[in-house]
Amino acid sequence: MANLRYVVYFLLLAGIMTLWPSGHGEAQLLPSDEDRLNRGEVIISFKEAPDTRVHEVKGEILFDAPAEMVWEVMTDYKEYARIFPDIHAVEVLPSKDETKRLHVTVKNIWPSPDYNYILAFAEDKPAWTITWKMEEGNLKSLYGSFSIEFFPKDPKKVKAIYVMARNQGWIVPTLNADLANRAIVIDRLLAVRKELRERKKALDEDKPSDIKPQWRKAIFWWEKDQEEPAQNKDDAKEGEATENKEGKPTDSGADKEEKPPSEDEGKDNK
Span 199-218, mean pLDDT? Predict the structure, then answer.
């Protein structure tokens, strides 16, 4: 029994040593949210939502783009079906006052019906915030927001925050609804990042190049063939310059012709 007790103590001690933090006795810290954002991750958190059984899902991400470009993507409502993978169709409806309205269709898992609803969007550009809420549709409730914050450590980047609470009704358990909403938030933020990269790439391709091509200093063989006839023409023009307008040679140099003496000159010579 004593030997067995020592074996048990040894195993417990070995287990504790394996769990002990390494590196000169210092505990290894988990990466901070800032480090995760710089690595391109989407940080997700949950919060209790008012007047609904589901939770608010909050997603944070860093975009390597100016705030104005991010705002243009998020307010390009007619392109939502192309930008976001879960949205099947979008119809821009007439606005009410300053509220933008969209009819959105989201594909659902067969044999469940697709989600169809009308969202009302309120834009607050000075605060870089967009909020939306479902006016009508076949969901129990739906609301959300999108905001942009400047990233002090890198002025070229901005932080985007996407919040959504979608309640599909009693037929979907709360845990399943929260996990589905989490996936939607992640997919939409990554879709915005992809759209920003494509738009930045298109802008870079449209910019004129400031680099002057050095290879134009060389003359290719086909360009030489084009220059030789031109040089021959110039030589021909220089040869014709010695002729007058009637086509007769000019009275210059050794090519001057001697005229035959006239009769009067002959008599005088005699």
Answer: 69
